[in-house]
Amino acid sequence: MTAKIVATVAVVLGGLFYLIFGLKDEEQLFVDVHRVVAEPAKWEGKNLDVHGFAVPGSIKEEIIGQKTLREFDLELCGQRLHVKHAGSKPDTFKEQAETVVKGRLVRDPGQVYVQAVEGEQGIVAKCPSKYDGNQKAPQCN
User: Fold this and answer.
1) What would you report as the CA-atom Rg of the chain, rounded to the nearest whole angstrom?
2) pLDDT confidence of 109, banded at 50, 70, 90?
3) Which domain holds residue 97?
4) What pTM did the predictor assign?
Protein backbone atom coordinates (compact mmCIF):
# COMPACT_ATOMS: atom_id res chain seq x y z
CA MET A 1 0.00 0.00 0.00
CA THR A 2 2.76 2.50 0.93
CA ALA A 3 4.66 1.69 -2.28
CA LYS A 4 1.58 2.62 -4.33
CA ILE A 5 1.23 5.94 -2.49
CA VAL A 6 4.92 6.74 -2.95
CA ALA A 7 4.69 5.85 -6.67
CA THR A 8 1.58 7.98 -7.11
CA VAL A 9 3.18 10.96 -5.36
CA ALA A 10 6.32 10.56 -7.52
CA VAL A 11 4.25 10.54 -10.74
CA VAL A 12 2.23 13.58 -9.67
CA LEU A 13 5.36 15.51 -8.67
CA GLY A 14 7.06 14.53 -11.94
CA GLY A 15 4.05 15.79 -13.88
CA LEU A 16 4.02 19.08 -11.99
CA PHE A 17 7.78 19.49 -12.53
CA TYR A 18 7.27 18.98 -16.28
CA LEU A 19 4.38 21.45 -16.42
CA ILE A 20 6.27 24.12 -14.52
CA PHE A 21 9.74 23.77 -16.04
CA GLY A 22 9.33 21.70 -19.22
CA LEU A 23 6.69 23.83 -20.90
CA LYS A 24 8.53 27.05 -20.05
CA ASP A 25 10.86 26.49 -23.04
CA GLU A 26 7.90 25.91 -25.34
CA GLU A 27 6.22 29.25 -24.77
CA GLN A 28 5.79 31.48 -27.83
CA LEU A 29 7.12 35.01 -27.37
CA PHE A 30 5.75 37.96 -29.38
CA VAL A 31 8.49 40.45 -30.22
CA ASP A 32 9.06 43.28 -32.73
CA VAL A 33 11.93 43.14 -35.25
CA HIS A 34 13.87 46.04 -33.72
CA ARG A 35 13.90 44.37 -30.29
CA VAL A 36 15.31 41.14 -31.75
CA VAL A 37 17.99 43.02 -33.70
CA ALA A 38 18.98 45.00 -30.59
CA GLU A 39 19.61 41.86 -28.47
CA PRO A 40 19.81 38.76 -30.69
CA ALA A 41 21.48 36.59 -28.00
CA LYS A 42 18.45 37.12 -25.74
CA TRP A 43 16.11 35.59 -28.36
CA GLU A 44 18.32 32.90 -29.88
CA GLY A 45 16.77 29.42 -29.92
CA LYS A 46 13.42 30.55 -28.48
CA ASN A 47 10.00 30.15 -30.08
CA LEU A 48 9.16 33.59 -31.43
CA ASP A 49 6.38 35.45 -33.17
CA VAL A 50 8.37 38.23 -34.85
CA HIS A 51 6.38 41.27 -36.00
CA GLY A 52 7.33 43.64 -38.80
CA PHE A 53 6.65 44.59 -42.42
CA ALA A 54 7.84 42.65 -45.49
CA VAL A 55 10.54 44.77 -47.15
CA PRO A 56 9.80 45.62 -50.80
CA GLY A 57 12.18 43.85 -53.19
CA SER A 58 13.44 41.42 -50.55
CA ILE A 59 11.09 38.49 -51.21
CA LYS A 60 12.93 35.74 -53.12
CA GLU A 61 11.32 32.40 -53.91
CA GLU A 62 12.60 29.25 -55.57
CA ILE A 63 11.25 25.75 -55.98
CA ILE A 64 13.57 22.91 -55.05
CA GLY A 65 12.11 19.46 -55.55
CA GLN A 66 8.47 20.00 -54.77
CA LYS A 67 8.99 22.55 -52.02
CA THR A 68 8.92 26.32 -52.29
CA LEU A 69 11.71 28.03 -50.38
CA ARG A 70 11.52 31.74 -49.68
CA GLU A 71 13.68 34.34 -48.03
CA PHE A 72 12.76 37.91 -47.22
CA ASP A 73 13.43 40.71 -44.77
CA LEU A 74 11.12 42.05 -42.10
CA GLU A 75 11.52 45.66 -41.04
CA LEU A 76 10.27 47.74 -38.16
CA CYS A 77 11.56 50.97 -36.64
CA GLY A 78 14.41 51.13 -39.16
CA GLN A 79 15.77 47.67 -38.28
CA ARG A 80 15.76 44.61 -40.55
CA LEU A 81 15.75 40.90 -39.82
CA HIS A 82 16.18 38.16 -42.42
CA VAL A 83 13.64 35.30 -42.61
CA LYS A 84 13.88 31.84 -44.19
CA HIS A 85 10.68 29.90 -44.83
CA ALA A 86 9.65 26.73 -46.66
CA GLY A 87 6.24 25.67 -47.90
CA SER A 88 3.05 27.49 -48.72
CA LYS A 89 2.32 31.07 -47.70
CA PRO A 90 -0.92 32.94 -47.08
CA ASP A 91 -2.43 34.90 -50.00
CA THR A 92 -2.14 38.09 -47.97
CA PHE A 93 1.67 37.86 -47.77
CA LYS A 94 3.26 40.37 -50.14
CA GLU A 95 5.62 43.34 -50.11
CA GLN A 96 4.91 45.86 -47.34
CA ALA A 97 2.40 43.51 -45.66
CA GLU A 98 2.30 43.70 -41.88
CA THR A 99 3.59 40.26 -41.03
CA VAL A 100 4.18 37.98 -38.06
CA VAL A 101 6.67 35.15 -38.59
CA LYS A 102 6.48 32.16 -36.26
CA GLY A 103 9.83 30.43 -35.78
CA ARG A 104 13.22 30.42 -34.06
CA LEU A 105 16.12 32.83 -34.20
CA VAL A 106 19.17 31.12 -35.72
CA ARG A 107 22.79 32.30 -35.82
CA ASP A 108 24.86 31.23 -38.82
CA PRO A 109 28.39 32.51 -39.36
CA GLY A 110 27.92 36.14 -40.32
CA GLN A 111 24.12 36.14 -40.19
CA VAL A 112 21.26 36.03 -37.71
CA TYR A 113 17.85 35.10 -39.13
CA VAL A 114 14.46 33.68 -38.24
CA GLN A 115 13.87 30.11 -39.42
CA ALA A 116 10.11 30.14 -39.83
CA VAL A 117 7.86 27.19 -39.08
CA GLU A 118 7.23 25.31 -42.31
CA GLY A 119 4.00 25.91 -44.20
CA GLU A 120 1.30 28.52 -44.02
CA GLN A 121 1.32 28.59 -40.20
CA GLY A 122 4.87 30.04 -40.30
CA ILE A 123 3.77 33.35 -41.85
CA VAL A 124 0.74 35.37 -40.83
CA ALA A 125 0.16 38.48 -42.92
CA LYS A 126 -2.46 41.08 -42.17
CA CYS A 127 -4.99 41.71 -44.86
CA PRO A 128 -4.81 45.35 -45.98
CA SER A 129 -7.95 47.25 -45.16
CA LYS A 130 -9.38 50.63 -45.97
CA TYR A 131 -10.00 51.02 -42.22
CA ASP A 132 -6.29 50.90 -41.28
CA GLY A 133 -6.02 54.70 -41.19
CA ASN A 134 -6.70 54.77 -37.44
CA GLN A 135 -3.85 52.42 -36.57
CA LYS A 136 -1.31 53.45 -33.95
CA ALA A 137 2.32 53.79 -34.99
CA PRO A 138 4.61 51.07 -33.58
CA GLN A 139 6.49 51.83 -30.37
CA CYS A 140 10.15 52.08 -31.42
CA ASN A 141 11.81 52.54 -28.06
Assistant:
1) 20
2) confident
3) 28-128
4) 0.76
Decide if pLDDT at 72 tops 90: yes
Q: How many Cα atoms are found within 13 Å in the side-chain-facing hemisphere of 66?
A: 0
> Is 83 exposed, middle or buried, given 0-12, 13-18 or 19+ CB atoms closer than 10 A?
buried
End-to-end alpha carbon distance in the chain: 61
Structural domain contains residue 51: yes
Those residues with Cβ within 8 angstroms of residue 123's Cβ, 6 or more apart along the chain or in another chain: 85, 89, 90, 93, 99, 100, 101, 102, 116
How many structural domains does the chain have?
Answer: 1
Mean pLDDT of the chain: 83
**Stretch 11-34: mean pLDDT, rounded?**
64
Query: Is 63 contained in some domain?
Result: yes
We report the CATH number of the domain holding residue 93 as 2.40.50.140
